[in-house]
Amino acid sequence: MKTTISAKIACLMTSVVLLGGTVSANGSKPLPREGIWRGVFNVSESKVPFNFEFKGKDPKTAILTLINGARRDDFHVERLGADSIYVKMNTYDAALVAKLEDNGTLTGEYRSLVPGFRGNSLPFVAEYGKAYRFVEPGKDVAPKHDISGKWEIKTYTKDAVPASIALLKQTGNKLTGVIMTVVGDTRELEGTVQGDEFELSGFTGPSPFIVKGKINDDNSISGEQGFGIYKNVKFDAQRNEKAALPDPYKLTFLKEGYNKLEFTFPDLNGKQVSLSDEKYKGKVVIIETIGTWCPNCTDQTVFLAPWFKKNQSRGVEAIAIGFEQKDDLEYAKYTLGTLKNKYGITYDILFGGIADKKVVAEKLPALNKFVAFPTTIIIDRKGNVREIYTGYTGTVTGKYFEEYERKFNKVLDELIAEPVPESLTVAYNKGK
């Protein structure tokens, strides 16, 4: 994930708030009507639609669910004053506030809650009972092409952009898919094909994302990708079933002369923790560099947290080093603590500093460079770095996630099976 200031802002600006119904005796409006809603963000010159479902009549149990293809993301709803509702986007430090207008629509804005970035927002409008995303029922135009398959994408921008691949599935007018890069994926996107044009959007908590373009006569596609408020890039793409991204196991490695990783960072209680501590000696250790602002980091946490609970007794430890939107331990206690509680993390969480790839490279100087959040570093029982994986491939990528999971388990099984060095046996047995 890129960590420019604007990217951080957009990645964290999330939450949804909705109102509806008549006014009660005490002057408060009830919670939103239960059912499906359609919202539209105004992002520069683009309209980015999103769908959600509201359930519950009591703020203590009310849930708002963002819908993206087969993906569902749930968020707890809170009342805000007499006529508004506030919904924190779980681990993303953002919220959106809206009110019910006289014409029955919901209007609001999508705000960053990060200290120093407050005031940044995206406006949106939402309507109840509309389940479509881009095109109203009965107004579809027959598609001229089927763009299902794997597409190799070439982007045009002044800044270096990671190579990317789109995996698309079209059924009639309906289009779903995901865009993968070396740093991660967009999560599931949902959209439509109309004639020789297509559109896809996604909103799961981080910044809304949109892809729109044209299917050309030579069966190539061209268009534009919009990343919230902070970046728009033009692209061309060719269908290529053999397209491949750079090997994520070869992008980040140790500099010549290094075989170990050294660091000391505070945990969420301020205690200094080092990889050389007795707790980790003789253990296989998984190091994750993450940020609560990073959706791919969240998805990786959803994978690792239960895996660790299941496998810790085999002689494994894990450490998540969080790099956050503010270089402040108190703020990190809040953001990383929220992540810990949300996903039931039982491994150690440390605070590394501000979310900047240059900062990570400086604080982990054994690395040749730092490419992406998250990055997974796997260390053997002798304390040697054995594998480094850049980015994270989520479940929506299908076989790519399956390959990641299979290799992750294979590498860990092999390292766990290795004997504890005799010189570390006492420390290892003490830490079990």
Automatic annotation (TrEMBL):
Q: Does the keyword NADP apply?
A: no
What's one Pfam family here?
AhpC-TSA
Q: Which residues form the signal peptide?
A: 1-25
Q: Establish whether keyword Signal is in the entry.
A: yes
The protein's UniProt keywords, in alphabetical order, are: Signal
Recorded hits in SUPFAM superfamilies, A to Z, give: Thioredoxin-like
Q: Where is the Thioredoxin domain?
A: 254-413
Q: Which GO terms describe its molecular function?
A: antioxidant activity; oxidoreductase activity
The protein here is known as Alkyl hydroperoxide reductase
- Native organism is Pedobacter antarcticus 4BY
